Amino acid sequence: MSTPPPAGSTVPPSPSAPSPLPLVFNAPKRGKPPTHWADLTPAQRREAVEAAGHRAYRARQLSAHYFEGLRDDPADWTDLPGPVRQSLAEKFLPPLLNPVRQLMCDDDTTVKSLWRLHDGALVESVLMRYPDRVTMCVSSQAGCGMACPFCATGQGGLQRNMSTAEIVEQVLDGARRLDRGQVAGGPGRVSNVVFMGMGEPLANYNAVIGAVRQLVTPAPDGLGMSARGITVSTVGLVPRMQQLAGEGIPVTLALSLHAPDDELRDELVPINTRWNVDEVVDAAWEYARITKRRVSIEYILIRDMNDQAFRADLLAKKLKRRGNWGWVHVNLIPLNPTPGSIWTASRRRDEAEFVRRLEAKGVPVTVRDTRGREIDGACGQLAATDA
To answer: CATH assignment of 37-92?
Structure first.
C-alpha cells in the first residue's frame, strides 16, 4: 500500500460545515438495555465486582472466561465457586440478543442472524467465512435515520441506538460459533469486523467507539483484535469523521459515497445536503493523512442511476484532486435488491466499463464479492420481513 499524502499537504475542512450534529440524528428514546460486562472498562469492572460483594480479582477471572475463553455458560467457569458463578452471571451477563432466525448459505460459510433486543427491536449480523479470513458484519443501530432510498434499513427508519455491549455481543456470538466448530470449515476465529450492518455507525459514535475499544483491548480484558481488521463505515458525518481521526485507533474508514456529483448524491444519500461530496471526500482524505490508513470508498452500483461511464471519470477526478492514489481504494458493490424495490444491480457490461474507466486512470478498485443473496442478504431484509 502506498503512503497517504504527506502531512504538509493538508486539505482544510470546509469552514461552512457545522460542528454539532443535527437533532435528526438523535434516536427515539426507548428502554435502555441492561448494563452488561462489555459496557464496562476494566477499572469499572473491578469496582462493580467489589460493589457486588466479591473480591476484585474475580473481574479478571470473569473477563478471561467471557473474552478469552468465549465461555458464556457459568457452568464452564470451573475455577469459580458455584454461588459466585451464578451471582456474577446474573449481575453482569444479562441476555441482550435473543435469536429469532439464523439462515445459512455459501455451503454454510455465511450465517445471517436476526436478533430481537430487550425492547423488541430487531437487528441483524452476518458471519462470512473466506479461505483466508472470517468477517463479522455488525449492526450499530436498530434501523437507520439516514433514509437512503435503495437501502431496506433506511426505509424502515430509526428505532434506537444500540449499546456498546449489544454491538460486542454480535461479534462474540460469531467468535463462539467458530470456536465451537459450528461454522463449516472447522474451528476458527473472527479476524475482521465491519460496521456495515444496520444503522449509521458514526451517528451512534460513543457506543461504536466503545465497542471498538472492547474489540482491540488485549485479552483477557478484551477480544485482542487488530484495529487494522476493523472497518467503520459512514455516509459522511464530517464532524464525526474528524473526531474518529483523533481517536488513536487505526481502524479503516469506509465512506459510502455512491455518487461523485451532488445532484445525484442528494437523492441517493440525503445527508449530502448537509455535507456535500467535496466536504466528505476532504474529510476522508484528512483521515488518511492523520492515521496513515487507506480509506475505502464504497460505491453501490445501481442500474442506470450511478453506473454511467462519465460518473466513473468524475469519481476518479474527485479522488485524484486530494493527492496520490495511496490514500484511497474504491470498493464497487453490486446492489443486492430488496423485494419490491425499483432499484436493481448494474448490467455486467456497465459494471465492467466502470471498472475499466477507473483502472485506466490508475484508481485502485475492486468489485466486492457479494454474499447472501438467497438468504435476504441485503441489510435490513430479515428485520423487515419479521417486523
So the answer is: 1.10.150.530
